[in-house]
Write the structure tokens for this entry.
Amino acid sequence: MIYKLSDWQNVIVNSIGEQKYENYRQSVANDDRPIPIRFNVLDEDGNEKWLLMRGGNTVRDEHGNVIRLYGTVSNITEQVNREKELKI
């Protein structure tokens, strides 16, 4: 189970690369609606799972720094697998 932000960051960066993650991070810093990102992870059995992370509202401190981000993470594995089948 992932509990710390730094753990999520590592998972996402390893999946999509540092530049795409930096683009996401900048969207969080500059907007109230960060860009959605798709990334893949391996579950405990070693199976690939695809996730879609959509940021929602941000909470900022008195200096404008993001201190909390609300959003959703959805399992989109079936959708990604169907997309792959259509490309074959």
Notes: The chain has one domain: 5-87. Strands lie at 37-42, 48-60, 66-75. The radius of gyration is 14 Å.
